[in-house]
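Submission checklist for the structure archive. All mandatory fields must be present; incomplete records are returned to the submitter.

[x] Identifier: Bee-milk protein
[x] Organism: Mytilus coruscus
[x] Residue count: 428
[x] Sequence attached
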Amino acid sequence: MANYLAFVFYFQAFGIFTVLCSVKPNIVYEWETVDLVWPNSSVKDEYIQSKKFIPENNAINGIKMYKDDIYLTIPKLKDGVPFSLVKVKNDTSKNPLLIPYPNWDIHLEGDCSNLRLIQSMEIDPYTGYMWIIDTSFVPRANINIADQCLSKIIIWDLENDVEIHRHTFPSSVTGPGMFYLNDIVLDFHSNKTARWAYISDTLGHRLIVYDRELDISYAFRHASMKPVPEYASITIGNVTNVYSPLGINGIAMSSDLKNVYYCPLAGVGLYRIPTAVLRSSKSSNSDFEREVVHVGNKMAQSDGIYYGQKHNLYYSTLGPRSVYQWSMTPISDNVRPGRQTEIGNDDRIEWIDSFAFDESGYLWFVSNNLNTHFSNETVKGSSNFFIWKLFVDDSSYLKFSDDTSSAPSYSPGVYVYIFVFLYLLVTC
Ligand SMILES: *[C@@H]1O[C@H](CO)[C@@H](O)[C@H](O)[C@H]1NC(C)=O
Ligand SMILES: *[C@@H]1O[C@H](CO)[C@@H](O)[C@H](O)[C@H]1NC(C)=O
Ligand SMILES: *[C@@H]1O[C@H](CO)[C@@H](O)[C@H](O)[C@H]1NC(C)=O
Ligand SMILES: *[C@@H]1O[C@H](CO)[C@@H](O)[C@H](O)[C@H]1NC(C)=O
Ligand SMILES: *[C@@H]1O[C@H](CO)[C@@H](O)[C@H](O)[C@H]1NC(C)=O
């Protein structure tokens, strides 16, 4: 009974909190243009003169955290982006230098086995392995894929700085036609070693699965992964752009590992598919069709999404400059969507790209003005790339308890919640 009351009180406290305050997220780092840690200034001069490094073309996109370090991606979608994966050490500067990760040489041009076009990665907190997806080349219509380096996934050990494994995607999985490996979530063995990766293919409108144990990849297609023409146009401030080709983009894994959520960029629908379907290469598109659920509609189009331990799905609204929390209340085997609540907003947010969690209850995210970046309308003299954090008192889907088969338990003492409640009331 006491536990039950604590539970109810807890939700009420947070309900009032979220109604009363949509919090201002804090800017941790910001850059007008990024700069790197170079071996020496003559190397930097050479990169700038030869246009191997064009600072304003380097847009930070992806973010994930491990221990005290932040890992960021800079997809090579414009010229002059020499390093697609970088790291920021815990830094007191507001605009720190980026460190090419894992090393300089693995980013050098002209070698198919190197890191090439990285949009996203995910980190398995148990092993410290980073799973990096590499589309490898800028997708364009009428490109001859046979002339291009193949796309791949690389598993990299952050603790020991060594490659663990790599898998090259056969063109039967990524083709035919255009593809773009956009975002990735991990799914686990009972022994806590990530086994499956689920990847959104934004241009191929597919959900690609990589099974590490069998070292195979396969893909699913469904109408829900396609862009919706009526939602292709997005206005942020006074700039409107059209994103007609962009399908499945945001992808998130429930913290009980039972469902994968996804949404097309051009669209507002949120869908979920049981991992039981994705885990088997024998599942067909019709199995997918039978099991997929339209969860509901978000408030607006979004890019990356993320799922926390407390069964909240986090997403941003690209037009309105906000972060939303969507409660997915666990009820036995089903997941019923709850309320969508605005939990943070700021006028300086322009295109939230991706999310990460630290271990202190903060949701971190990148905003990067991607809309003006690609339409070449970036305003000079102000910051373009921001790393934010917002306290949400939640943690990543990857930080689960030993029992991965059941919902997380809410059992802390009632006094903690009374304290939290009073604290929130005072700070609101
Ligand atoms: C700068 O670093 C590069 C690469 O490590 C090296 O080849 C070069 O000799 C260095 N130049 C100077 C002036 O130290
Ligand atoms: C960096 O260090 C400060 C002070 O130790 C800490 O408060 C902060 O959370 C750290 N940031 C990250 C990203 O680890
Ligand atoms: C977990 O299982 C996988 C697949 O059977 C195996 O490769 C891996 O070594 C196991 N990990 C541990 C820590 O036992
Ligand atoms: C759009 O808004 C920005 C910032 O307020 C301003 O600098 C820019 O001139 C505006 N552009 C147009 C086309 O109105
Ligand atoms: C932006 O500039 C680049 C390089 O100058 C050019 O290739 C691209 O077509 C431009 N994009 C738009 C939307 O104007």
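[x] Structure attached
Curator remark: The mean pLDDT is 89. DSSP finds seven helices and 26 strands in the chain.
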